């Protein structure tokens, strides 16, 4: 469960001085019942977070489905009962959270399904390309994906700008010496650097912005030099819903996509007052 204090920051941003419309129009002691509806098919997520926000303001919440369930258009996902002003106060923040998390979970599960259809051992992961990491990483997990690094503190990932300052082999050597417990991953863009990284002891090699043909050449070279079994292979860059199966067919371990979070399509949900 994501901490309530984190969720309340979104509400504080939306209502810095209260909900002036509801305070002006809605009687203070008016009670209401409402529902939150899915307005499209997909994987629902963010219900736990919405429940925590509503309950914080004294609204009774009944979850009709659970996070990770696949729902149809028109499905009631939450029943609400309580003070009308409080329901309206939380409404938009709750819908934004459910909409974003459900959009990520839906797309993640769709891509995981495409990948598993051709290669069950390949995992689909997100990236750090988001400012809403707690929500987005949880949504990826709900969609059966892998969150990848949560922060810069989680694992060592040597990228192009690191290598612009320190040579590849030296960077891996320093990373290995720095910690015996953290995985060392290195991003490369050529067959030559992939072989260097494997020989230098990288745990994971990320093949960035390579075509399936180029990746196949790297994999063949690693096998030829008896290095393939010593590293995990992640591919990233230029991968879309349309071509993801071309990558999944290869002998790789992980496909990572920033698009899961930086280009999310919001899932359509709405709150309707019943009376």
TrEMBL record:
Keywords: Glycosyltransferase, Pyridine nucleotide biosynthesis, Transferase. The keyword DNA-binding does not apply. The keyword Transferase applies. Residues 104-272 form the Quinolinate phosphoribosyl transferase C-terminal domain. Residues 19-102 form the Quinolinate phosphoribosyl transferase N-terminal domain. Pathway: Cofactor biosynthesis; NAD(+) biosynthesis; nicotinate D-ribonucleotide from quinolinate: step 1/1. Gene3D superfamilies: Aldolase class I, Quinolinate phosphoribosyl transferase, N-terminal domain. GO terms for cellular component: cytoplasm. Its EC number is 2.4.2.19. It comes from the Archaea. GO terms for biological process: NAD+ biosynthetic process; quinolinate catabolic process. It catalyses: nicotinate beta-D-ribonucleotide + CO2 + diphosphate = quinolinate + 5-phospho-alpha-D-ribose 1-diphosphate + 2 H(+). It holds the Pfam family QRPTase_C. SUPFAM superfamilies: Nicotinate/Quinolinate PRTase C-terminal domain-like, Nicotinate/Quinolinate PRTase N-terminal domain-like. Substrate binds at residues 92, 127-129, 149, 159, 187, 208, 236-238, 257-259. One of its GO terms (molecular function) is nicotinate-nucleotide diphosphorylase (carboxylating) activity. Hexamer formed by 3 homodimers. Belongs to the NadC/ModD family. Involved in the catabolism of quinolinic acid (QA). This is Nicotinate-nucleotide pyrophosphorylase [carboxylating].
């Amino acid at each position: 469960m994501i901490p309530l204090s984190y969720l309340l920051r979104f509400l504080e941003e939306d209502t810095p001085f209260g909900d002036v419309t509801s305070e002006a129009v809605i009687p203070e002691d008016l009670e209401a019942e409402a529902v939150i509806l899915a307005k499209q098919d997909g994987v629902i997520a963010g219900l736990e977070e919405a429940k925590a926000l509503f309950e914080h303001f004294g609204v009774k919440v009944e979850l009709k489905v659970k996070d990770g369930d696949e729902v149809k258009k028109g499905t009631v996902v939450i029943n609400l009962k309580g003070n009308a002003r409080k329901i309206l106060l939380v409404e938009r923040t709750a819908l934004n959270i459910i909409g974003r998390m459900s959009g990520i979970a839906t797309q993640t599960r769709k891509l995981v399904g495409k990948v598993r259809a051709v290669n069950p051992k390949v995992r689909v992961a997100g990236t750090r390309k988001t400012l809403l990491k707690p929500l987005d990483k949880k949504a990826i997990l709900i969609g059966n994906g892998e969150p990848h690094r949560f922060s810069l503190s989680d694992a060592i990932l040597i990228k192009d700008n690191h290598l612009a300052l320190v040579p590849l082999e030296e960077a891996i050597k320093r990373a290995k010496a720095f910690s015996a417990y953290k995985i060392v991953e290195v991003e490369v863009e050529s067959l030559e650097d992939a072989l260097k990284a494997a020989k230098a002891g990288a745990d994971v090699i990320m093949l960035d912005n390579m075509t399936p043909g180029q990746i196949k050449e790297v994999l063949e070279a690693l096998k030829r030099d008896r290095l393939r079994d010593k590293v995990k292979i992640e591919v990233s860059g230029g991968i879309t819903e349309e071509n993801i199966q071309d990558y999944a067919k290869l002998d790789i371990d992980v496909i990572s996509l920033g698009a899961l979070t930086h280009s999310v399509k919001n899932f359509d949900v709405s709150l309707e007052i019943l009376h």
